[in-house]
Amino acid sequence: MGDTFAGAVSKAPQDIEKSALEHVWIHTTEWVRVAEEGGLHVFERGEGSTLYDIHGNAYLDGISGLWVVNAGHGRKEIGEAMAEQAGKLAYVSSGSYTTVPAVQLANVLADITPGDLNRIFFCSGGSEAVESALKIAKQIQAMRGFPRRYKVIARRGSYHGATFGAMSLTGDRKEEYFGPFMYGVHHVPSPNRYRNDFGLEGEEGDLMCANYIEQEIIAQGPETVAAVIGEPVSTSNGVHIPSPKYWQRLREICDKHGVLLIMDEVINGFGRSGKMFCTEHFGMQPDLMTMAKGLSSGYAPIAAVAVSDKVYDIFKEQKDKSLAHLLTFGGQAVACAAALKNIEILQDENLPQQSAEKGEYVKNKLEALREHPTVGDVRGLGLMCGVELVKNKETKERWGKGSEYLKTLDRILNSKGIVTRVWDIIHVAPPLVISNEELDRIVQMIDESLTEAEAMFQNEIGA
Ligand SMILES: Cc1ncc(COP(=O)(O)O)c(C=O)c1O
């Protein structure tokens, strides 16, 4: 196999699976586990919330790829828009050139993002968006006359991407492989009403996390801090929903100290939280907003940073300067056409509102899972829900990422026909087009899987 082009692109399922094991570097997957224990899935097509593998088996996509496919799988109209654009013009270099779909998309994004986020920098993925936001923030601080403002404050447990700068902001950043990291990153506590770092409850705990950031800025020296970054609702941190006062307080703190506020909407954006952007729940706006994933619902690799007029204006004042940052594929025309059609669908089908309604529906159903001895908490906003798993409900002891219990649960869930992620949280974040009947099936599969896994690990539970 592979001696000829036709051989290399064989359509026989067994050849495809063999080639997948031999040649595809599936990001973060342990090769030995997949090769020896199975669990590899090669998917061939999707429709709405359902994925079909090369054997024709159907799976409910409980996590929209990775919080990506908001408009659902198999949207032919997005494919048609892309084909039409590819037939006309796929790419021009940057410089002072752009394309019609890039202009139209920037216009739409300026329109639907909150406040004066009117300047759109395009790139190809979430990590690039975060990396770009970091560089934009640092350069703007320097152009404003503060070249020593290079530090960035991020929150513990957060995830902002895999490239070097974005990884440096990330909580679990694998010191053993990649340290030392970008200099000047400082991590602070994040809102968490289940295990608050200060032992406080509700809004009081959230506000303490905001005030802690001010203390950190003061301790670092405000004249050295460029930006604070956070997801409006952090998924990697476990979908904890802060009070609007947390973000409003953080806005005040950043303004007071001349620090730029970056909100990372890479997962939260495009209807996932029940509004077009999650920031809208909090009644404030950031200086820079990163977006990716749901921007095209995964039909094309495209991402962006939206920057406020107030921040961008420095480039109008200092006419001889431009951003020292260029990405070849930023604003690629076919990707822009995909994003445009995707946003049209999100709006026409009222998918942010549907996400809000279906999110409430499924959250109420998930509440019943609290009866399980390993379900510590259930949380969610829109179709971004999480079921937190614990070993012991009283002490809230975690199983720990990669523990046998979580791996077993993951396998059982998958064998029942659901694709999701089990960390210390079972994430429930299906495409926004999912039906209530499909949501019921997801909850039922989780319920049954928990019962099976709990029976296998009975001796470790509550111990
Ligand atoms: C909040 C957040 N920011 C950034 C990223 C990085 O995005 P990408 O994987 O597209 O580079 C992710 C990825 O999951 C994310 O969750």
Give a summary of the structure in a few sentences.
This protein is of the alpha/beta class.
Strand order of the largest sheet: 4-10-9-8-7-5-6
Query: What's the architecture of the largest domain, going by CATH?
Result: 3-Layer(aba) Sandwich
Which hetero ligands occur in this complex?
A: pyridoxal-5'-phosphate
Average pLDDT works out at: 96
Distance between the termini: 53 Å
So what's the oligomer here? single chain
SS field, number of helical segments: 17
Structural class: alpha/beta
Any idea what the CATH superfamily of the largest domain is called? Type I PLP-dependent aspartate aminotransferase-like (Major domain)
- Biggest β-sheet: count, sense, barrel? 7 strands, mixed
Q: How large a portion of the residues is in β-strands, by DSSP E?
A: 5-15%
**Strand runs, count:** 14
Q: What does the overall shape look like?
A: globular
- For the CA atoms, what is the radius of gyration? 22 Å
In CATH, what is the class of the largest domain? Alpha Beta
Helical content stands at 40-55%
What is the domain tally? Answer: 2
Question: What would the CATH topology of the largest domain be?
Answer: Aspartate Aminotransferase, domain 2
Give the low-pLDDT segments: none
